[in-house]
């Protein structure tokens, strides 16, 4: 009997990818045979990084993981999963507020596609306060964020900040 490949997706905007995201990615990569990092494309949303830059940064940050595939899509995540043979969504949480939101999303996704399971992983405690939005906010005040994002992301954030001055 052929062994089924366990495929999952961790989706988000990743603007920018943080050490909290990488914590969830690395832990998920140990659980699944293939982990897709799904970068959501929203042409109506202007982020700090372009869509292409976000994809490139994620690829650079995960190049040491051989079972990672960076993908992009628009539309419903459950539809993408069904079209690509993925039956597990990975979601990261930092706080109680995240739990409530992710639980609602998990129930909605289950309603839309009963074959999709959601696994919720709490991020490591040392990253529990990090969000992409907060990173961008404190960066405006020249805060030291070197422990919060990968070096390649930090370099790009500084480059963008210096270009804006």
From TrEMBL:
Its cofactor is Mg(2+). This is Phosphopantetheine adenylyltransferase. Substrate binds at residues 13, 45, 77, 91. Reversibly transfers an adenylyl group from ATP to 4'-phosphopantetheine, yielding dephospho-CoA (dPCoA) and pyrophosphate. Homohexamer. The keyword Cytoplasm applies. It comes from the Bacteria. The record marks 21 as: Transition state stabilizer. It catalyses: (R)-4'-phosphopantetheine + ATP + H(+) = 3'-dephospho-CoA + diphosphate. One of its GO terms (biological process) is coenzyme A biosynthetic process. It is an enzyme of class 2 (transferase). Belongs to the bacterial CoaD family. It comes from Romboutsia lituseburensis DSM 797. SUPFAM superfamilies: Nucleotidylyl transferase. Pathway: Cofactor biosynthesis; coenzyme A biosynthesis; CoA from (R)-pantothenate: step 4/5. One of its GO terms (cellular component) is cytoplasm. Residues 9-137 form the Cytidyltransferase-like domain. GO terms for molecular function: ATP binding; pantetheine-phosphate adenylyltransferase activity. The keyword Transferase applies. It is found in: Cytoplasm. Keywords: ATP-binding, Coenzyme A biosynthesis, Cytoplasm, Magnesium, Nucleotide-binding, Nucleotidyltransferase, Transferase. ATP binds at residues 13-14, 21, 92-94, 102, 127-133. Its EC number is 2.7.7.3.
